[in-house]
Amino acid sequence: KFHSYYGDGMVLQSGGEGQHGSRVWGYGTYYDPNDPNGSDVMFRCLTTQGNTFFGGYSIGQISANIWEIVFSPNDPGDLCQLQISSGEEVLSISDILFGDVWICSGQSNMEQTMANIINAEEEIANSANFSDIRFTVIQNTIAYEENDDMDIVLDFPWSDPSYSEGLAEMSAICFLYARNIFSETGIPQGMVASDWGGTPIESWTNTEVLESCNVPAGPEPCSICEGCDGEQFCYSVLWNAMINPLKRNFVKGFLWYQGETNGGYGGYLGFNRDYYQCTFPAMIDSWRHEFSLHSMTDDTAPFGFVQLASWRPDTTEASFPVIRWHQTADHGFVPNEEMENVFMAVSLDTYDDKEDYPGNLHPRYKQIVAERLAVAGLNIAYGLNYPTNGPFPVSVEIEGNTITVTYDKDLTYLANEISGFYYCTQLDSCDAGIFLDLWREIEMESVEQVSPKEIVVQLEENQPFWLSYLWRETPVLAYKGLPVYEAAETSLPSPPWKWLVERRKYGV
To answer: Coil, strand or helix: which one is 384?
Structure first.
């Protein structure tokens, strides 16, 4: 039988190298091909040019109970049928579409479905004709041991958006990202949602990564906070069960939305919060390594993530601001030297005051976030002329009481709710605790834009200090109401950042 990942209507990754492209694999023993009733593989494809071709392939028995077929590279849009005859048994997969495959993972904001976004019914209806986007959802499962041959369970079979009931249960960020990418490139997209609400990064990361980051041993029984108990919180169990079994598959890249659990939900220091700047980049490298070792996935495959959204409007807890910083390996932007081929979307202007779910911690405004993620992905994953981020400082200089922040691109500055800027003089303690009490907000009248790329801040402070931007869990309440955006049509917001300022030229 096939591994349960494979099924009618699925997407396999196009491309490859030499004679090696995507593969399918499964369980059992194939008959000796020298036997007159032995194994036969029929692979028939229709190209986008209307040509039909047949591929002749053989089955490889890679272990006592595991077989595989490795295909030659196929072009995006090829539509294929696979039939395997082995003795009297016949296995088949129909309507296989070649394109780009993305694995979408994380916790509840990645898990949040199309049924739970703003204008959900309209979005689902308007997506019905995007038949070249296919998707499926991995059922939540744990495993205490890593087993490359482990099977999975799908919540529903591979589907396209005409199956509205299935689309309603698909990750919104995952699907909407694909819709934006397809609309720009025309490349079919295969989206695999493998996520679990409330889970920490440690559950999605293998033991070697956690050891390399010196992450403290996990509590027994598995718990991340009072009342947060469950086997899904145990280290590596979701990597073992929901990601590792997929690694024989050639994929384009990965999408990630997670961090709330590690930052902390209120009144405590989070769960391994200040290891995240190590665990997240190391997890990215590990996933890439494992997939590239077992398939044709690139060892620097594109990896996109969403910075944590706003939640509570009046809190000064440090949890989300610190995690957002750690999500970039403490650089404030991606890609960077520690996070090659990584891209992100800023979501701090999607505050949702609706109580309960969806809303609040799970903003319904997923469309704009997916659009921003796709804009950056079009650059990193597809090499197109799109920006990877909104305006970001290239220098911060002080003269007298005037601080000049120079950005890497033209910007617009509009301070309707806040100036956006904060400062802290206790350099080693600013983000060390649970709260941001050491950070002081800079008033709106002290900040102005003086040129297309420059903002000046007036501040009377003689000792060294950190200058930051958007250093709050919920800096603004208005939708798309942040102070600094890119002046270009894509209008990406400036991400949160901090910069050490002394009375000379400065660097982060």
So the answer is: coil
What is the residue-level pLDDT of the chain in tens, covering all 508 positions?
A: 999 999 999 999 999 998 899 999 999 987 665 655 556 888 999 998 888 988 878 889 999 999 999 999 999 999 999 999 877 889 999 999 999 999 999 999 999 999 999 999 999 999 999 999 999 999 999 999 999 999 999 999 999 999 999 999 999 999 999 999 999 999 999 999 999 999 999 999 999 999 999 999 988 888 887 777 899 999 999 999 999 999 999 999 999 999 999 998 877 788 999 999 999 999 999 999 999 999 999 999 999 999 999 999 999 999 999 999 999 999 999 999 999 999 999 999 999 999 999 999 999 999 999 999 999 999 999 999 999 999 999 999 999 999 999 999 999 999 999 999 999 999 999 999 999 999 999 999 999 999 999 999 999 999 999 999 999 999 999 999 999 999 999 999 999 999 999 986 444 4
The whole-angstrom separation of Cα 498 and Cα 368 is: 25
DSSP designation for 121:
H
The pair of structure tokens assigned to 173 is 């960020």
Ordered strands of the 447-451 beta sheet: 393-399, 402-407, 454-458, 447-451
Distance CA 123, CA 368 (A): 13
Tell me the three state secondary structure of residue 181. helix
Cα 76 from chain centroid (whole Å): 23
Count of CB atoms within 10 A of residue 422's CB?
A: 24
Q: Residue 433 region, left (φ>0) first, then alpha (ψ -120 to 50), else beta?
A: beta
Those residues whose C-beta lies under 8 Å from the C-beta of residue 105, and which sit 6 or more positions away, are: 193, 194, 195, 204, 242, 243, 254, 255, 256, 258
Nearest residue to 177 (alpha-carbon basis) of 240, 283, 106:
106
| Alpha helices by DSSP H, 328-413 | 366-380
Tell me the C-alpha distance between 433 and 438, whole Å: 10
d(CA 266, CA 315): 9
Q: How far apart are CA 504 and CA 500, in angstroms?
A: 11
Task: Tokens 């997916």: give the residue.
Answer: 370
Q: Are 303 and 342 in contact (CB under 8 A)?
A: yes
Between CA 16 and CA 250 the distance in angstroms is: 8
pTM: 0.96
DSSP string over 211-258:
HHTTPPPPPSS-BSSTT-B-GGGSTTHHIIIIIGGGTTS--SEEEEE-
Angle at 107 between CA 102 and CA 112, to 5 degrees: 80
* Cα-based distances in Å from 237 to 150, 196, 201, 274, 437: 13, 11, 11, 21, 37
**End-to-end Cα, the chain, rounded Å:** 55
